[in-house]
Amino acid sequence: MSTLLERVRGHLDRREHRMRHRFRTDVSSRNGVFVWSTAALVAVAALALLIRWLLDLPMVAGVVAAVIGVLVVRAAMLRPATPPHVHGLPGVPEPKVCPAPDPADRGPFVIAVRWLGAVTALAVAFAPSLAVGFAVLLLAAAAAPVIADKVVLWRARLTLRRALKAYEPRFVLGYGGYGGGPIHVGMWEPHLLASGDRGVIVGLRSHYCAELRAAIRPSMPWISAGSDVLGDMRVLTVPSVTTFFYVHNAPGHLKLMGIRSVRHVWLGHGDSDKAGSHHTRHLRYDVLVASGEAAIDRYARHGVEIPRERFVLLGRPQSGDVLPAETPGTEVARPTVLYAPTWTGNGKMTDFSSMRIADRILRALLVAGTDVIFRPHPVFLRDAYWAGRLEELNAILAADHEDLATPGRHVWGEEAVRGWSVAECMNHADALVSDVSSVVSDWLASGKPYLMVSMVHDLDEFADAVPVAAGGYMVDRELTDLPKVLAQMLREDPLAARRRQLKVHVLGEFEGDASARAFSAWVHEMAHTPMVRG
């Protein structure tokens, strides 16, 4: 019951967030709405004054009330946006709590302003001067709390802009995801900073800020945008910023991409054949950083036509930490296998995870005589729904590890997920078992064998739908012949040559840290190249 309530609460939180971020994402559209709504207020005021003139009522009070009314209604006809809060930026005080508390709800005052604005217009048209003055006073009283909060927002933005101009960041790492930030941001931040340039992180979900900062403690200043993201970014995009980078498919990034004075670059958080790696939203990016030709082929294969010149192939900087095998796995008496099931996704069509059958996979690995490193996707550790399941799976390895009658020496839990990086897990392993995941693409840098579990596709179509599977061993969702396939991978490994070819197709020609060096040099070039749109 508690898990169901948590999921319902999460759904409501996301819905509330979408409502709070309902502002338009295009600068010209936002400007157009502002101009037309202001013009409508002026037209209403002019009509009221015309009627007052025709009725031969005193005009001075009417004109003053009309001007004040237009200005006050224009300033207070919408709820004040929540201000951004900032961490780690010189010149801006740290908030006492993270996320910073929202200001009081001014919705009732906004509604009152709208109604009293109409009353004031009627008073200007038909009422004597005393009644007009009274209406204006009521309107001003209703608008005062709204305008006061907007002044707070204006001051916060001004302080932040001054601090950013002094800091002179060259790029922004935009993050609007609901989860995975410790992985996604942590994956790219060191490689972006290796360019030698300053950057800042802009997050779109204030409640997620504390969790992410506690998990990875980013080196770059963190700006958590308020509810009016586009309004914040119009103020915060200082002249030194040339490029925005994105590592997550969040639709909220469209708000950041409403800023057209900068370059918008898609990095993603890994090369895989999941839908997120060929999304039609990527058509909006100015540049797409891809690992190798496989990424470009993937878009074309799924009908997403992106001009070739918008891609830049830089390999996978993170794969430089993945070391090739010193000894072929087939010559290791008791091989170590990394089992890294992917996240379940947001629906059946994107659920490639083998976690629901992970107990059978772990037991098969034990029977095959291997040591196991069990590293589930870190989001599993934050999801209460999976807590009990993870305890059961960890217990399988713990029991074998602690049984002196077995040779098994396994790694699981905190040590595997937080103690070791993904690359360290890979470097300790002789073979991999995973799903449709970017883990497989990164693993190719090792040259070591891997097995993929096909949870969605039938086995005869798996390699066509997921080309990286062509270089690995495969089992279906029923784990048919798993012991036999494991034995083939661990003791014979006939696919070694195919993996070498696939590595170049997926990761490019880069070896060692060459990809990381190429990436940091390219980031530096982009950071110092202003965006000029045709």
Automatic annotation (TrEMBL):
This is CDP-glycerol glycerophosphotransferase family protein. GO terms for cellular component: membrane. InterPro entries: Glycerophosphate_synth, TagF_C. GO terms for molecular function: CDP-glycerol glycerophosphotransferase activity. Pfam families: Glyphos_transf (PF04464). The keyword Cell division does not apply. The chain crosses the membrane at residues 32-51, 57-77, 109-127.
